[in-house]
Amino acid sequence: MHTAVNESGTGQERKAPGRPRNAQADEAILDAVLEMLSSGQSVAAISIEAVAAKAGVGKATIYRRWPNKEALIIDAVAAMKGALPVPVGESVRDDLIMLVKANRSGRAHRYSKATVCLLPEFIKDGDLNHMYQAVIEPRRDVMRAVLRRGIETGELRADLDVELTLLMIQGPGMMQSMLNWNPNVAEEGFVEALIDAILRGAAA
């Protein structure tokens, strides 16, 4: 089962024009899924019926929007991530800080536990993992482009390993946000400190 990813980065299939969508219902449905995942429920334990009841909508409302549960869950993850950030392009440091903060704000911050609960599901289910990769890779591509631009402008080392640096940027933020491994780290200033630490080794 593979679901096409639309321009907004979600996993929802395109459908023929029909009844206009209700943005408020969409928000309620996606939030219901994220709340259920954040409470520790597995993908297998979540049903369309349960989501409909929690969101206060009918099952038909959900099925008009999503072909199956997996597509709904991936769209919920995409909604949690938010819109694709657009770097300013003046400073590698500023752009990296903006991109990391964008991944830690809004729904992503509110429902951080949802990602923790989904990770085992992505490992077990290849199709679900494929859909998830289609959501996050465009965001990773934006960060790759910033790093490559930094190499071209001389802000970053010419021999910089872009993929390894990308992993170094995303890994600590994800672990701290999801698991709070270092409870002594204040949220304010964390992203700046992380990027500055990485740039001490990555800068030209």
TrEMBL record:
Query: Domain HTH tetR-type, which positions?
Result: 23-84
Q: Which residues bind DNA?
A: 47-66
Q: Which UniProt keywords apply?
A: DNA-binding, Transcription, Transcription regulation
- Annotated segments matching region Disordered: 1-22
Classification via InterPro entries = DNA-bd_HTH_TetR-type_CS, Homeodomain-like_sf, HTH-type_TetR-like_transc_reg, HTH_TetR, Tet_transcr_reg_TetR-rel_C_sf, TetR_C
Polar residues bias (residue ranges):
1-11
What domain of life is recorded for the organism? Bacteria
Keyword Cell membrane belongs to the record: no
The record ties this protein, via Gene3D superfamilies, to: Homeodomain-like, Tetracycline Repressor, domain 2
Q: Which SUPFAM superfamilies match?
A: Homeodomain-like (SSF46689), Tetracyclin repressor-like, C-terminal domain (SSF48498)
PANTHER family hit by this protein:
HTH-TYPE TRANSCRIPTIONAL REGULATOR RUTR, TETR-FAMILY TRANSCRIPTIONAL REGULATOR
Q: What is this protein called?
A: TetR family transcriptional regulator
| Record organism | Paractinoplanes durhamensis
